[in-house]
Amino acid sequence: MTDFLYGVHPVREGLRGRRQPLELFVVEGAVNDRLQKLLDLAAERGVPVRRRRKADLDRLAGLPHHQGVVLSVEPYAYADVDDLLAAWRNSGRPAFFLLLDGITDPHNFGAILRNADAAGCHGVVVPKDRSCPVTGAVDKASAGAVEHLPVCQVNNLARAIEQFKAAGVWVYGLSGEDADRTIYAEDLTGSVALVVGSEGEGLRQLTRKSCDGLLSIPMAGGVASLNAASASAVALFEVVRQRQ
Question: What confidence tens digit (pLDDT) does each residue in 173-193 have?
């Protein structure tokens, strides 16, 4: 099988990322500086370039909003927990992981992956059920960040949490209910994993029980919570801030 990335940023990162790029499809007649940079990258990687009608690119991307570029790449290869732990141990930094419980919307998932990559996470863990897979839409929403960030799919999220804990990683769930303390009151400078739940249901009960602690993000306005992508950004960059 072949995956298709679309849009300038995802295609650029696809040409620079871990997956093998196969072919770059460019709409007929398009000429601009951004496109030329993609063509130069394709030439550096030895990726053949095909000029095609817009309708052909619409079909490959599955939608008309692809900015005139589509890249075929080898299928996304998920990491496993051992891969993530090895990446952490080889990094020389305290562990920094993000676990997602029930994120099913590709745009939210992509935005969260972009946050995780920008914050310097060693990897992201998602359950195989009740979770969005890595797709072209996710890649687009992540602005191509998923091409550089290991994502691990697991059969049992609670079991994965126990693996991280056994490796010496403290696991904290984000929760607006029954939180032990706010995220600003917890020392996050050591090896940590943050767990973010879905916007509708939050963390599942077993996930909550598996965490070492529950942390909240203080809300000063009239709404009770942030969406999952915004909450992940606040929490991830609080870890970054504390480690400066």
Answer: 999 778 889 999 999 999 999
Largest CA distance in the chain: 59
Q: Residue 28: which domain range?
A: 3-73
**Which residue, of 53, 73, 93, is where some domain finishes?**
73
Q: In this predicted model, what pLDDT tens digit does every residue of 74-106 receive, in sequence order?
A: 999 999 999 999 999 999 999 999 999 999 999
Whether 31 shows a pLDDT value over 90: the answer reads no
- 238 and 118: one domain? yes
Kindly state whether residues 146 and 58 are assigned to the same domain.
Answer: no
The answer, as to whether pTM is greater than 0.85, is yes
Distances (CA, A) of 88 to 123, 141, 145, 179, 201: 9, 25, 18, 27, 30
* Per-residue three-class SS string for 36-91: HHHHHHHHHHCCCEEEECHHHHHHHHCCCCCCCEEEEECCCCCECHHHHHHHHHHH
DSSP H/E element including 192: strand 192-197
